[in-house]
Design a protein that fits this description.
mainly alpha; rod-shaped; about 180 residues
Length: about 180
C-alpha cells in the first residue's frame, strides 16, 4: 500500500463525513458503505488506522508545500501588482501631460483662428479699399486717354502741315492763276 489514489481518499472522507451526520439513516448507510468497501479491499481496522496515520504527515507536508507555493505565488502577485501600479501611475502622468499639451494646442488653435479671422477681415478691408481706389482712379485714367487723343490729333495736324511744307519745297508748284487771265 505504497501509493493511495486521491479519488479513494476523497470518497472515504465523504463517507466518514456522512457517518458523523446527525441523521440516523444517512449515518448508518455511510457506515455500511465503509464496511463493504473495507471487506472488498481486504482492509482491517488496524490497516485503516495505519492508513490515516501515514496520510497525516503527507498532508502536513503537502499543506506546507502548498503554503510555500502559495506564498511564492502571493509574493509574485504582489510584485506584479506593485509593477502594475507603478506603470499605471506612470501612464496616468503621461495622460495628464498629454491632456495638458492638448489644452495648450487647443488654446494655440483658438489663438490662430482668431488671428486668421482678424487677417481675413484686414484682407477684405484692403481689397475693398483697393477697389475704391481703382474706381477713384478711373477719372484720371479717362483724363489721360483724352489728353493722349488730343496730343495725337495735334501731332497728326502738325505732321500733315510739315509734310505739305516739305512737299512744296521739293516740288515747285506753278501758279496756274496767271493762265486764267
Amino acid at each position: 500500500m505504497s501509493q493511495i489514489d486521491p479519488k479513494e481518499i476523497k470518497i472515504l472522507s465523504d463517507i466518514l463525513a456522512l457517518v458523523l451526520e446527525e441523521q440516523q439513516g444517512q449515518s448508518m448507510t455511510a457506515l455500511e458503505a465503509i464496511k463493504a468497501r473495507a471487506r472488498r479491499d481486504g482492509m482491517t481496522g488496524g490497516a485503516l488506522k495505519n492508513l490515516f496515520q501515514t496520510l497525516a504527515p503527507d498532508i502536513d507536508r503537502l499543506t506546507a508545500a502548498r503554503k510555500a507555493t502559495e506564498g511564492a505565488e502571493l509574493r509574485t502577485l504582489e510584485n506584479t501588482i506593485h509593477t502594475l501600479r507603478i506603470q499605471l501611475h506612470d501612464r496616468g502622468e503621461i495622460l495628464n501631460r498629454m491632456e495638458h499639451n492638448l489644452r495648450i494646442v487647443r488654446n494655440n488653435n483658438e489663438n490662430l483662428k482668431s488671428q486668421l479671422h482678424v487677417l481675413q477681415n484686414a484682407h477684405a478691408e484692403a481689397t475693398h479699399r483697393l477697389g475704391m481706389k481703382m474706381m477713384d482712379s478711373n477719372y484720371p485714367r479717362l483724363m489721360i486717354i483724352f489728353v493722349a487723343v488730343m496730343a495725337g490729333l495735334l501731332a497728326g495736324i502738325a505732321g500733315t502741315q510739315l509734310f505739305h511744307l516739305f512737299y512744296a519745297a521739293f516740288h515747285p508748284v506753278t501758279d496756274n492763276a496767271r493762265y486764267l487771265y
